[in-house]
Design brief:
This protein has about 220 residues and is α/β, with parallel strands linked by helices. The protein has a single domain, classed as Aldolase class I (TIM Barrel). The protein is built from 11 helices and 8 strands. An 8-stranded parallel β-barrel has the order 1-2-3-4-5-6-7-8, surrounded by 8 helices. Bound molecules: erythose-4-phosphate (E4P).
Length: about 220
């Protein structure tokens, strides 16, 4: 079954999604931290962990291998369900190789993936999640979902122990297509999660049922 993560650092949104019973994990990034109005990555991540029974990703901000490794050592020590997000760049691949060799190091979310070969490389480097940025590929006039499909196929052919994470989701069609493409995880902005449970036809149908009931009940 595909897992649903929430792509936010906003605690109210996480609480709401948890109460809907549809929250398998959370992904954050520096932009989402900025939107949530906090620069305290550790404090915010610990608050999220209290609400979520599943993987919670926190991203490094260093771009050199040693800096990423040092940040990862700290982040992974916060809780057993914290995953460290490492950008898919050459220095990041080196960091992933090192971090994945640690006893607690198989908690890497390789981020900013835009091609199947990048996904192949992070799987080889020991990442547990390969985060493919569908919406940003679509924004550039490319086919983001095709990257998910091809990555799924490559991981299946070679039996990689790395989960395909559909990220940068813009609308509910992306969710449907990610499910059909065999994504292991889909990380959703809160507004997309809300839209998934709604249809104007459902609202109109409900209004009609209630109006008819009113008629018969008052007759
Ligand atoms: C993934 O983990 C990222 O946080 C995210 O999906 C980025 O998406 P965006 O293109 O909406 O910023």
């Amino acid at each position: 079954m595909a897992k649903i993560f929430l792509d936010t650092a906003n605690l109210d949104e996480i609480r709401e999604a948890r109460d809907m019973g549809l929250l398998d994990g959370v992904t954050t990034n520096p932009t989402l931290m900025m939107r949530a109005g906090t620069a305290d990555l550790k404090a915010n991540t610990l608050k999220i962990i209290e609400m979520v029974d599943g993987p919670v990703s926190a991203e490094v901000v260093s771009t050199d291998t040693d800096g990423m490794i040092a940040e990862a050592r700290d982040i992974l020590s916060w809780a057993p369900n914290v995953y460290v997000k490492i950008p898919t760049i050459p220095s990041g691949l080196k960091a992933m190789k090192e971090i994945s060799s640690w006893p607690n190091g198989r908690r890497i979310n390789a981020t900013l993936i835009f091609s199947p070969v990048q996904a192949y490389m992070v799987a080889r480097a020991g990442a547990s999640f390969a985060s493919i940025f569908i919406g940003r590929l679509d924004d550039a006039g490319l086919d983001g979902m095709e990257v998910v499909r091809q990555t799924r196929e490559i991981f299946d052919i070679y039996g990689f122990d790395c989960q395909v994470l559909a990220a940068s989701i813009r609308h509910t069609q992306h969710v449907t297509q990610s499910l059909l493409a065999g994504a292991d995880i889909i990380t959703l902005p809160f507004d997309v999660l809300q839209k998934m449970s709604r249809s104007p036809f459902t609202d109109a149908g409900l209004q009609r049922f209630l109006a008819d009931w009113e008629k018969v009940a008052s007759s």
